[in-house]
Write a structure and sequence with these properties.
This protein is mainly α. The longest helix has 41 residues. The N and C termini lie far apart (51 Å).
Length: 286
Amino acid sequence: MIERVSGKRKTWCNVMKGLSYISLFIVTALTFFMLIYVLVRGLPHVTSTLLFTSPSMLRNTIGILPDILNTIYIVIATLIVVLPIGVGAAIYLNEYATNKKVVELIEFAAETLSGIPSIIYGLVGMLIFCQFFSFGTCLLAGALTLVIMNLPTIMRTTQESLKTVPDSYREGAFALGAGKWRVIRTVVLPTCINGIITGCILSIGRILSESAALLFTAGFAHNINGFINGMGSAGATLTVALYVYASERGEFDIAFAIAAILMILTVLINFLTTYMGKLMNRRNGQ
């Protein structure tokens, strides 16, 4: 009887292992297929004129330099606002909050926010930032809308990372006479920096891929501005430009070129963020 049960269990384990391998193969194959397909279709159309000029009706040229700059501006502005708020909220929930009902309510609200479609964020952002606060259609309104969208991601990933820090680290620091904030700043946060970096990478990916919310809030102008002036002006990001060229103008070659640039830009930013995380770990002696 025992041998029969163990034999069934072994067969079941082999079946589940086989299904896991199949799932891994499907996910990997789909990822590489999409990556290779977009790069093959898009890279031949990536030229210096496309990358380093502005679109011009007089010269009949298509350039995406303003869109690249606007995308970088949106990423920087969103991270500047969302990282302190998200990390601070996670620190409060995990280290300071004592009322479990309040913590559960905030966590439920964060999970609800993460499941709302982006088009609704765009509508709310347009009504609040563009009209109520009279910002108008500009990159600042788009960045603040993306802050609300990415706040649950930063908060939850940081909170889960804080929970992985052993209590013995905190107790040892308290035993040495360190205060609450000093323990968090010098012991807890350096230990969970990888979780914060992960949340940052996820947020960057969502910022780069967002188009629906930005259509309502940031607009789709193609003007080159500096960071300060650009935040107060309307501007199209790469995803918005991709949508316009593909759906309204039928320029699918340009759309695939923008998609390839978006993929390369995402990979570069992720590598840069990971490298910064490793530098922080080295500085903290980990």
